[in-house]
Amino acid sequence: MRFVSIFGSVFFLSVHYGVILYVHSSFLSDFFEPNAVSFLLLLGAIGSIIFFLFAPKLIRSLGKRVFFYFSLILVLASSSFMALATTALTVAVSSIIYSCLIPMTYYCLDIFLEEISTDNKTGEIRGIYLTFISLGVAMGPFILALLATMWQGFQPVYTAAALLLIPPIFLAIFSFKSNTDKTHAPYHHSLKLPFGVWCCDRNIRRVTLTRLVLEFFYGLMIIYTPIYLNRVLGFEWSELGIIFTVMLLPFILFDWMGGELADRFWGEKELMSMGLLITGFSLLFMPFIGKIFWAWMVILFISRVGASLVETMTETYFFKHVKADDTGLLSIFRLSRPLGNIFGITVGILTLNLFSYEIMFFVLAVLIFLGLRESLSLKDTL
């Protein structure tokens, strides 16, 4: 029953996230200049890092359930304020709060799931979990496309996203229980995360750095691709909703399958490296595509085939090497998301101010290929 509650919660949370994900930078662009948009997203990523650093301490003090409620309710409130916002200040504050706390909701669900998972089925369980996340995120752009055909502006988008958080709040209240609310590894007596342990464990360090490369890819592509396709190439949001929905299908198709393959046949190392190669090569073609609907749909789909393999394999590999009470190591692993966002935003600002969107894709491809050094150095689990 707990699996059903966790999977249900992460599904609705991910639909919510998917609705907002690819429009948020464009929404902010209605109130701020491009550099200010990047700065706001940067502040949100820094705030998220601060929360990750303090998360073990907060969980020890409050318990996972209370911390999860706190994060969900503030994400709901910030989404609602963005739906109703008419001033730049309201948008800025709400956006920062949202960016800080949306990763915390997934962090708490990670811990709940790890408590009830077994090592010999980690790949399968994580694959199913990621499939629910991917299905939810993929439905987001589809809902966005429907809303774009019926209403103008971003208010309906953020209103719909806020309403989608109601089911996970009810599921959390009535279904989530924890046997270890107050037990989270000895280093939680300190505010410090176990970076010494992380550095000494080569495999956990390498899989975290590989994940950082993936999150860097996400951070840059999620922010700047919608702006490029909408503002530079001139695609409508109704078109982009379809493109992004198709783009996200690999996460639904390959997450569960990838977890099964990693558990039974191939190791995570090989699939992870293959994913990096696919993603990197797809990026090399993007600068040469103009306003061709089907071409962008295909190349973005291929890029996410690679990304889905890297995502599933890094998740599976990491959780095979930790326990439910290793929330300090989990915090470090999940720090890859806000750090990746920071690196992505920084590279985006530099390349766009010095060069162009086309050069940005080449720079990203090179950095993706550099991630192979870490993935190929992993000790395989098979």
Task: Please sum up the structure shown.
This protein has about 375 residues and is mostly helical.
Descriptive keywords:
Growth Hormone, Chain: A, single chain, 18 helices, 80% helix, cell membrane, transmembrane transporter activity, 0% strand
Number of strands: 0
* CATH T-level fold name: Growth Hormone, Chain: A
Radius of gyration: 20 Å
Total count of helical runs of at least 4 residues: 18
Number of domains: 1
Strand content: under 5%
Shape by Cα distribution: globular
The level 1 CATH classification is Mainly Alpha
Q: List the secondary-structure elements in sequence, H or E.
A: HHHHHHHHHHHHHHHHHH
Q: Level of helix content?
A: over 70%
**What's the story with the biggest beta sheet?**
none
| Mean of all residue-level pLDDT scores | 86
The N- to C-terminal Cα distance equals: 31 Å
Q: Could you give me the name of the CATH homologous superfamily?
A: MFS general substrate transporter like domains
CATH architecture: Up-down Bundle
SS-based class: mainly alpha
pLDDT < 50 runs, ≥5 residues: 181-191
Explain what this protein looks like in three dimensions.
- It is a single chain.
- The protein has 382 residues and is mainly alpha-helical.
- It has one domain: Growth Hormone, Chain: A (Up-down Bundle), CATH 1.20.1250.20.
- 80% of the residues lie in helices and 0% in strands.
- The chain is built from 18 helices and no strands.
- Helix 1 (2-21) packs antiparallel against helix 7 (155-163), helix 4 packs antiparallel against helix 7 (155-163) and helix 10 crosses helix 16 (336-354).
- The protein is globular and about 50 Å long.
- The model is unreliable at 181-191 (pLDDT under 50).
